[in-house]
Structures are given as structure tokens and as C-alpha cells.
């Protein structure tokens, strides 16, 4: 059966991205705007969607929207699907805004005993990367404000863990005493970053190691530009220290963060395969009814 054209949309907290895909899944056109769910005027999601994509929504076209647009703060809530789950489970639980035309993709939940974990949007990237890499099993890492580490078995996400690495970096570098001794806008310094990754493996914990950023600066052993990359290495190294790594890890995300995680994972002896925005579009195509 020939699939109809698909409008694939990733609607996150801070940004809105979309792609018009042909029947074979090729990208015909892409758009983006700083209109994440927190920036939608008067909560008019339908109006923002129409302004951005109405010219793409020709008769017969469908739109699938992943990300925070399906959260309680978004357009409408698409309830989480419990792990283990794959594309088929998500496709069965799409939240249709307009029947057979516009739907929100649910996120995933992982029970984890007394404290559950959730993701929304990353699951689509994982399913896309699986297809791009030809993998049905593996460890998938999605760096970001809240980094995700997901285990896939037989084409389904069996569980995952979230780490607030990006958010903690922002807090430390902008709102703590460390902000006075580092330059958060400095270019990436690979040597300083690697030093931070190595330091995170000393077993003394993040709270102690983070204060070392200030101490090293006071004794002129780290400059403000170096300190920013060193702190990034500490935090990502701390994240990696909690993982049991297989020989190969798939990392999905923006190029700057993917580069840092690839370096840190390489320090731990892992081979890394990387993907970017294309994983989202391929993942949404996999969910098309």
C-alpha cells in the first residue's frame, strides 16, 4: 500500500520543527520557529499550527506531532504508554486532534519501582535511529536538558533513565558560585572537557568535584573559558559513571552535544554511532497509521 504524504512535527518546550515527507519518507521541505509550547500566544495551538503548516495540509495528508505538544501543558494530553513499548504500541495510542488528519504521539513511561520515569519526544527519535542503523537491540543515548538512556530489545524500549545533566550545567554555570569563575559562552575546549570526564571517575562524587572548578580557578590552573568545558566534562562524566556500557552506543541529538558525549564515551572504550534530526522524521514515518 502506498502511504500518503506525512507532515512530521516535533513540538517541544522551546521550539517547533516540521518536515513535509513524501510517500517514500524523503524530506521535501523543513521549517522551524521559536514557538515551543511555552511560547504559544494565548495557548492557541491550533492557530499556531495553521499559521505554520496549513499550506502543507493538502487533502489526504496526515500530520503526526511528537514532543511536549502532547503533554498536559500542550495542545492536548496524549497519555504515556508503559514500557516495554515499540512503534506499534505508540501508533495504537495516538491522540487524534482531527480524526485521520492530525494526531499527537504519546510518550513513554517506565515504572522503576516507587519513582516512575517519563520521556516525550525522545521515543520517536529512538525508533527512527533504530531504522536508520538497522538495529533491533542496543543502548540509545539522547543528550539534552534532561538526558535519556534507553535500552532497546527486539525493537521495543524496555526501560530508560533520565539525568538532569543539561539543566544542572545551566544552574551551576549561571546561578552558583561557579558562575564567577567560568565563561559559559566560551568555545568548547576538548582538553579541559576530557580532564573533567576523567575527574568524574575518581569516586568522590559530583558535589565535591564541582567545587574543584572554583578551586582550580583560584589557583590559576583553569582559566574561565577552560572551566566551562571542564564542568561540562564533570557532569557528563558523572552521568556515564552510572552506566554499564556495551561495545556500541547510539547517540541522538544536536551536533555540539553529540560530539561531547561521543568523546566521553570514547574515553570509556565505547564505539559511538550518531544521528541528528533525521531520526525524528524517520521515527514519525514509522508510526503513520
Description:
By secondary structure, the chain is of the alpha/beta class. Helices cover 36% and strands 24% of the residues. The protein is built from 9 helices and 14 strands. It is globular, with a radius of gyration of 20 Å. The relative contact order is 0.14. The mean pLDDT is 95.
How far the N terminus sits from the C terminus, by CA atoms, comes to: 12 Å
**Average pLDDT, to the nearest integer?**
95
Order of helices and strands: EEEHEEHEEEEHEEEHHHHEHEH
Shape: globular
Q: Describe the biggest sheet? A: 6 strands, mixed
Beta strands, count: 14
Radius of gyration: 20 Å
Instruction: Give the low-pLDDT segments.
Output: none
Physical arrangement of strands within the biggest beta sheet: 3-2-1-4-7-6
Helix run count: 9
Category from helices, strands and their pairing: alpha/beta
Strand portion: 15-25%
Instruction: State the share of residues found in helices, binned by percent.
Output: 25-40%
Amino acid at each position: 500500500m502506498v502511504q500518503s504524504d506525512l507532515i512530521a512535527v516535533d513540538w517541544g518546550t522551546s521550539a517547533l520543527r516540521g518536515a513535509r515527507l513524501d510517500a517514500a519518507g524523503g524530506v521535501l521541505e523543513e521549517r522551524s520557529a521559536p514557538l515551543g509550547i511555552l511560547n504559544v500566544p494565548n495557548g492557541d495551538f491550533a492557530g499556531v499550527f495553521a499559521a505554520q503548516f496549513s499550506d502543507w495540509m493538502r487533502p489526504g495528508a496526515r500530520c503526526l506531532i511528537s514532543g511536549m505538544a502532547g503533554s498536559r501543558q500542550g495542545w492536548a494530553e496524549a497519555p504515556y504508554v508503559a514500557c516495554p513499548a515499540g512503534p506499534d504500541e505508540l501508533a495504537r495510542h495516538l491522540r487524534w486532534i482531527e480524526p485521520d488528519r492530525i494526531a499527537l504521539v504519546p510518550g513513554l513511561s517506565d515504572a522503576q519501582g516507587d519513582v516512575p520515569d517519563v520521556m516525550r519526544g525522545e521515543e520517536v527519535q529512538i525508533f527512527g535511529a533504530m531504522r536508520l542503523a538497522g538495529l533491533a537491540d542496543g543502548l540509545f543515548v539522547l543528550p539534552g536538558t534532561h538526558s535519556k538512556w534507553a535500552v532497546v530489545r527486539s525493537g521495543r524500549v524496555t526501560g530508560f533513565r533520565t539525568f538532569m545533566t543539561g539543566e544542572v550545567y545551566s544552574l551551576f554555570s549561571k546561578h552558583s558560585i561557579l558562575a564567577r569563575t567560568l565563561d559559559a559562552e566560551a568555545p568548547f575546549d576538548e582538553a579541559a572537557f576530557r580532564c573533567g570526564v576523567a575527574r568524574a571517575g575518581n569516586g568522590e562524587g559530583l558535589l565535591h568535584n564541582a567545587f574543584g572548578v572554583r578551586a582550580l580557578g583560584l589557583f590559576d590552573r583553569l582559566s574561565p573559558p577552560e572551566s566551562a568545558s571542564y564542568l561540562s566534562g564533570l557532569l557528563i562524566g558523572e552521568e556515564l559513571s552510572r552506566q554499564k556500557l556495551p561495545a556500541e552506543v547510539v547517540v541522538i541529538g544536536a551536533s555540539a552535544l553529540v560530539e561531547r558525549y561521543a568523546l566521553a564515551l570514547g574515553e570509556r572504550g565505547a564505539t559511538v554511532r550518531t544521528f541528528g534530526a533525521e531520526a525524528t522524521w524517520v521515527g514519525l514515518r514509522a508510526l503513520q497509521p
